[in-house]
Write a structure and sequence with these properties.
Layout lengths: L1 H11 L6 H9 L14 H11 L13 E6 H4 L7 H5 L5 E4 L2 E4 L7 E5 L2 E2 L16 E9 L11 E7 L7 E8 L8 E10 L5 E12 L11 E4 L2 E4 L3 E12 L4 E14 L9 E5 L12 E3 L7 E4 L6 E16 L3 E17 L16 E2 L12 E3 L4 E19 L5 E19 L10 E21 L2 E12 L17 E12 L5 E12 L27 E13 L4 E21 L7 E22 L5 E13 L23 E2 L6 E11 L3 E10 L3 E2 L17 E2 L3 E11 L7 E8 L26 H9 L5 E4 L8 E4 L11 E9 L1
Parallel strand pairs: 4-7
Antiparallel strand pairs: 1-6, 2-3, 4-5, 6-7, 8-9, 8-41, 9-10, 10-13, 11-12, 13-14, 14-18, 15-16, 15-17, 18-19, 19-22, 20-21, 22-23, 23-24, 24-25, 25-26, 26-27, 27-28, 28-29, 29-30, 30-31, 31-32, 31-33, 33-34, 34-37, 35-36, 37-38, 38-41, 39-40
Length: about 800
């Protein structure tokens, strides 16, 4: 929208200018590719704008921002299931599962917005999802950010949803593997159009996916009969909905939009995989032999399916926005009110019931060096954990953007937020240690920001400058936490400077300096505990916003009407990040506390080549070189070590867990009207780092952190579509293949072994196994048959390996 305003002002020229004069100025331009001489006036910049605007995926040429644009024609044609998979194909992004690391930042250092309203949970920063069928376009701004983009150290993802059309239309689609691989089904629907003579239009979108994933599905099937069908939760269940009402005049418009998410995650853990009959004591009189397991019924044994005793998470989110926007010839004024709410429950059945947290239902593990059982599997009991979190965030913002006749731009805006968060976390995995097992808080706090940004066009050069002020406070509850702190707020000011210079009628070169602050997520601030284990550090209300300083040099180039390229070189310095450090209170027992103690830096090169053809045909090739180093990858620190003693702390910087040096992606969509289409995506990356660990030893320092590397990885996805002719010409049949070449790549070397007392908690057994043997899959050290000769017992944990190839069918109908 803003780019369109700027280009419109530049192309129309000063008020009252004669069109023939403008055309004459264009005719006197140099041939394409010639450099612009010093003192070049506005007509040269207009020529550049006219050339660049032909490439629809090149961002505003006068901006110093680096932006990856993903229009609906791309989002709806590539073989992806979620918005995060679209972003994973963009330059500068490293994907680890659903976590996206932009330009070397942590996953929580990026923000997702809709009309400037954040979709990120204020507790831990995880974003809610938008239905793929509802998308109009997606925009990833990662470098040289203008002052209106704030509150995110790494980047801002701007999501825009489809608007109502002049007539009713829609689409319906269904994807399934027909139970041939992971029991996958995804259905989506969208319908939109005018609402009679009311002057309103509506768009309704819905998407649901049910998938048992490639991991073993060991839980009991709980199904219900609804409308003659049998329904039940699978391993990964997602339901997304979007309802949008909007007035139709373009100059002044009201928009009301509601988005709802629900995800039920029933995870797999090989420790909770026994399925049969167990007894807590093989010798009931003394119980020195530990528990027993049998696949068939035996006297004294009870039926036990361990997967049913492993907790699951039911997460629900909702977003509501009410926006008013007025567009004039050279002005855009917008006011938006937004509410973001969420509730997440982790328990045995996803309900708000923690009655299972009793000592008689504590998980029972086997013994070390025993021929009767093992210390890895759970033989009885429930996972001793319960968590309920809720949050509400209200946001009100106003933005005013103006463009002068010669292309100068002025942006002003301000906003306020109000957060209300609550948590009840119950961890009963350490009985008898005299620690606080319940973490609870309820806190609320305001916040706000204001910004101003100026773009000045003069003699063929464009200068961008801005200033952003933000206010953060932990709220009045800061005084009542375990580490009390004053409730006063913290103010910060972030400058933005940039220069864009058109070096030819096809090229624009830019340089920028940006300073960004990001407030700490609320869950790191509050805590009522006094004595803890090291699994969850104590919250600290004294935390302040973290800072990133970023430098960038970028170029945007157009080869012609169909080809374009953009590239960037960047360096980012981050400090004041949230990290865990040892503290010694009066009792002289070390406590792990969150502090502004971590720092990091990232530098790299991004390159993107774009092609746009006829009939929505398109292709994109990207390459990223990245070096990301820092003190810690996780805010909580390393997950291994003693529960109560001081944990080893980082010395200097090392490769972060997402330090992927080389990443390349290719995405292609080719369509033959009336016949069919082919879409393809390939993502190739060099190996991610992992940490070798010593066998059964407490780590004294972190000098080995992320010093080893996995092999290169590759994953390709393909989709074939056939347009059914004649009678069913609105029907499309398709075939999707995910991971075409069945590449089995490493995604991790180890996992958190909670609630085991030693395996992958006190010691990193998986990391030590891989360091000694070079084999993936994980193992634990044990004398399996009790002969006095211990060794590695492989686990073959499938969570450490990427998913195999899957084949799905689909059918869609449009009208």
């Amino acid at each position: 929208m803003l780019a369109a305003l700027v280009l419109a002002a530049a192309l129309t020229g000063p008020a009252g200018a004669d069109s023939s004069a403008r055309n004459a100025a264009h005719r006197t331009s140099r041939a394409p590719g010639d450099s612009l001489t010093p003192g070049t006036h506005l007509p040269r910049v207009v020529k550049l704008a006219e050339t660049l605007v032909q490439a629809t995926r090149i961002h505003d040429p006068f901006s110093t921002e680096t932006v990856q644009l993903i229009p609906a024609s791309v989002a709806h044609t590539l073989p992806v299931d979620r918005v995060s998979e679209l972003l994973a194909l963009q330059a500068g992004v490293v994907a680890r599962g659903e976590d996206l690391h932009v330009r070397g930042g942590r996953a929580g250092e990026s923000r997702v917005t809709l009309r400037g309203i954040a979709l990120n949970d204020p507790l831990r920063g995880s974003p809610m999802q938008v239905p793929l069928v509802a998308l109009r376009d997606v925009e990833l701004a990662s470098g040289g950010l203008d002052a209106d983009d704030g509150g995110a150290l790494a980047g801002v993802v701007k999501v825009r949803t489809a608007d109502p059309g002049e007539r009713w239309g829609g689409a319906l689609e269904w994807h399934t593997d027909a139970r041939t691989s992971t029991h996958y089904d995804r259905a989506g629907a969208r319908a939109g159009g005018p609402l009679g003579g009311t002057g309103l239009g509506a768009v309704l979108s819905f998407e649901t996916s049910l998938d048992d994933t490639w991991l073993p599905n060991l839980r009991s099937a709980h199904r219900e009969r609804i409308l003659g069908g049998s329904f039940g939760w699978r391993a990964d269940n997602r339901m997304l909905g979007d309802v949008k009402l909007a007035t139709r005049p373009a100059d002044s418009r009201w928009t009301l939009e509601l988005i709802a998410n629900r995800r039920v995650d029933r995870p797999f853990d090989p420790a909770w995989s026994l399925d049969g009959y167990t007894t807590p004591c093989l010798d009931p009189d003394t119980c020195v032999r530990g528990p027993g397991f049998s696949p068939v019924p035996l006297p004294g044994y009870s039926r036990y399916r361990a997967a049913d005793h492993h907790v699951l998470t039911d997460d629900r989110r909702a977003l509501g926005t009410l926006a008013w926007e007025r567009l004039a010839e050279r002005r855009r004024l917008a006011v938006t009110l937004g509410w973001l709410g969420g509730r997440s429950v982790t328990s045995l059945d996803g309900r708000e019931d923690y009655s299972y947290l009793t000592t008689d239902r504590f998980p029972v593990f086997g013994l070390y060096d025993s021929a009767d059982n093992d210390p890895f599997h759970v033989y009885s009991g429930d996972e001793p954990y319960y968590r309920k979190a809720s949050s509400n965030q209200w946001t009100l913002r106003a933005d005013d953007q103006r463009v002068t006749a010669r292309g100068d731009l002025f942006k002003l805006g301000a906003g306020a937020t109000y957060d209300d968060v609550a948590l009840r976390d119950m961890d009963f995995s350490s009985p008898g240690l005299g620690i606080d097992s319940i973490r609870a808080y309820h806190a609320f706090a305001p916040g706000g920001w204001a910004y101003g940004h100026v773009r000045w066009v003069f003699e063929g050069m464009v200068a961008n400058g801005g200033l952003r002020a933000e206010y953060f406070t932990p709220g009045p509850q800061a005084r009542s936490q375990r580490f009390p702190h004053a409730a006063r707020g913290v103010g910060s000011v972030s400058p933005r400077l940039g220069i864009a210079y058109p070096v030819s009628t096809r090229d624009v070169f830019s340089m920028s300096y940006v300073r960004v602050q990001q407030n700490p997520d609320r869950d790191y601030l509050y805590d009522n505990r006094a004595s803890i284990t090291n699994r969850e550090p104590i919250g600290n209300p004294a935390l302040e916003p973290a800072t990133a300083i970023s430098y960038q040099a970028a170029e945007k180039h157009v080869f012609g009407a169909q080809w374009a390229m953009q590239s960037a070189v960047f360096y980012r310095d981050l400090f004041g990040l949230v990290g865990a450090r040892n503290q010694r209170p009066q009792s002289d027992i070390p406590l792990l506390v969150y502090e502004n103690a971590d720092d990091a830096h990232a530098n790299g090169v991004e390159w993107t080549l774009l092609w746009s053809g006829r009939h929505s045909n398109h292709a994109e090739l990207t390459y990223t070189f990245l070096e990301a180093r820092g003190t810690q990858s996780r805010e909580e620190g390393v997950p291994f070590g003693p529960k109560l003693q001081a944990r080893p702390q980082t010395i200097g910087q090392h490769a972060l867990a997402w330090d992927r040096r080389h990443t390349a992606s290719l995405s292609v969509f080719l369509e033959r009207p009336g016949a069919g289409s082919l879409s393809w995506s390939t993502l190739v990356g060099s190996g991610l780092p992992w940490t070798p660990a010593p066998r059964r030893e407490l780590v004294a320092d972190l000098s080995n952190e992320n010093t080893e590397r996995f092999r290169w990885s590759e994953i390709s996805n393909a989709s074939l579509r056939w347009f059914v002719p004649r009678v069913l010409r609105n029907v499309t049949l398709g075939l999707d293949v995910r991971n075409v070449f069945d590449s089995r790549y490493d995604v991790a070397a180890t996992v958190d072994g909670y609630p085991n007392l030693e395996i992958n908690t006190l010691y990193d057994d998986y990391g030590a196994y891989r360091a000694e043997t070079g084999r993936p899959g994980g193992a634990y050290w044990n004398d399996r048959n009790g002969d006095g000769v211990p060794g590695w017992v492989p686990v073959h944990d499938p969570r450490l390996i990427g998913p195999p190839r899957t084949i799905r069918m689909n059918v869609s109908v449009t009208w």
